[in-house]
Amino acid sequence: MQSLPKTLADDVARNLVMVARLIDEDPEGAYGYSKVALRLASRVAAVREAAGFAAYANQKYSEALAEFRAARRMTGSVELWPVMADCERGLGRPEKALDMAGAPEVHKLDKAGQVEMRLVAAGARRDMGQLDAAIVTLQSPELASNSVQPWTARLRYAYADALLAAGREGEAREWFAKAVEADRDGGTDASDRLAELDGVDFVDALDEGEGESEETGTEAETPDGDDDKD
């Protein structure tokens, strides 16, 4: 944003900060701030990228794809390639996502980007009902590795979920457990999925308390009823 006047740059920066702050917990709010930033500085690549992610978070896939393409034209970077492919999935075009997964751009991605592309490709296979192909797609050195990387939990989770969808429950349980081991920040619900497979039921303490109160109230009314009968 160095090309912008300082006051304008500050305004744009404030809106981008709000996009980053809200995008997980309040996607609609983040989207609103991204539109303001876009109106102020549509020729800035960072603004187009932020607008793309905000639209993506709100499942506005056509709009997100247009913004990601604009950002890519401005920077020449392939970093957004996996999320662009996932937008194609969102638009109901899994075949296009698979074409992108086999494109030369994938080889230019860093390791995290390549893993993300693998996740998108597996998702596209599942969209097409190709469960076995999705499982094979996820099988990789990154999946087999014992080291924990930022992408490890999501990769293991996706593999477990694909196994479960294919009816391979025993293997799915094993990989959900491995996902739990790698999920240090609780980014997935792997622990819940594992508990579900193990038949563990969680009871809401508040609901349980309310139930006890109702039972207590019923018992308190019983003596009065007995007195009336006498």
Descriptive account of the structure:
It comes from Streptomyces griseoruber. InterPro entries: TPR-like_helical_dom_sf (IPR011990). The protein is an all-alpha fold and 230 residues long. The protein has a domain of 77 residues. 73% of the residues lie in helices and 0% in strands. The protein is built from 13 helices and no strands. Helix 7 packs antiparallel against helix 8, helix 10 packs antiparallel against helix 11 and helix 11 runs antiparallel to helix 12. It is globular, with a radius of gyration of 24 Å.
Distance between the termini: 86 Å
The value of Rg in angstroms is: 24 Å
The arrangement of helices and strands along the chain is HHHHHHHHHHHHH
User: Which geometry do the CA atoms define?
Assistant: globular
Provide the structure class.
mainly alpha
> Helix amount, in percent?
over 70%
What fraction of residues sit in β-strands? under 5%
Major sheet: size, sense and barrel closure?
none
- pLDDT < 50 runs, ≥5 residues: 218-230
Number of helices: 13
- Mean pLDDT across the residues is 90
Number of strands: 0
Region (Disordered): 206-230
InterPro entries: TPR-like_helical_dom_sf (IPR011990)
Protein name: Tetratricopeptide TPR_4
Organism: Streptomyces griseoruber
Topology of this protein?
Blueprint: H1 6-22, H2 27-40, H3 45-57, H4 61-75, H5 81-90, H6 94-101, H7 111-127, H8 131-138, H9 141-144, H10 152-165, H11 169-182, H12 190-197, H13 205-229
